[in-house]
Specification:
The chain is an alpha/beta fold. It has one domain (26-163): Mannitol-specific EII, Chain A (3-Layer(aba) Sandwich). The chain is built from five helices and six strands; from the N terminus they run βααβββββααα. It has helices at 37-49, 57-70, 126-140, 143-150, 155-163; strands at 23-32, 74-76, 79-80, 83-86, 93-103, 113-122. Strands 1, 2, 3, 4, 5 and 6 form a six-stranded mixed sheet that branches. A hairpin with a 2-residue loop joins strand 2 and strand 3. Helix 1 packs across helix 2 (57-70). It is globular.
Length: 166
């Protein structure tokens, strides 16, 4: 059996603060006004690609858009998690956007999306990819977390709420 090439996080996957190591203040936005799902995916690609000059924004957009074509990443209750795997990064990258108003995202419950957490993981980090998606979906299933996030008034408050997810 070959050793796994999956990403090895700085903190235990079971430990506190696992998700917070992948998001930075620069990749969190509140009060965003966008007119379409396409424009929202472009904004997520902009934020994720800002992680490194090595990341091409158009490539990131294509990866996110290809995943979205398989089925909406709108998980319901106003939340979406567009995600994908990409070569050229050595750790997961998370961004977060809180829209001023809900936007049609073809979510599973047909409700508009207001909170979007974008995720890129290294191409070979399958297990980590699934673990992060699972943690985000579990957090967003809790009414108190959804309410706290939707009540955020500025980037700093939203950044703290995202960092507190686990």
């Amino acid at each position: 059996m070959q050793p796994s090439t999956d990403f090895q996080p700085r903190r235990s996957i079971a430990g506190e603060g696992f998700l917070s190591q992948f998001v930075s203040r620069e990749r969190v936005r509140t009060g965003v006004h966008l007119s379409s799902k396409k424009r929202l995916i472009e904004e997520v690609a902009d934020l994720l690609s800002s992680y490194s000059s090595e990341l091409d924004r158009d490539t990131v957009y294509q990866i996110l858009n290809q995943r979205e074509r398989l089925g909406s990443t709108g998980i319901g209750e106003g939340f979406a998690i567009p995600h994908g795997r990409i070569n050229g990064i050595d750790q997961p990258i998370i961004c977060a956007i809180l829209l001023e108003q809900g936007l049609d995202f073809d979510s599973i419950d047909n409700l508009p999306v207001r909170c979007v957490v974008g995720l890129l993981v290294p191409a070979d980090a399958n297990q980590t990819h699934l673990q992060i998606l699972s943690r985000l979906a579990k957090a967003f299933s809790r009414p108190e977390i959804r309410q706290r996030i939707m009540a955020c008034r500025d980037d700093a408050e939203f950044f703290q709420a995202i960092n507190d997810l686990d």
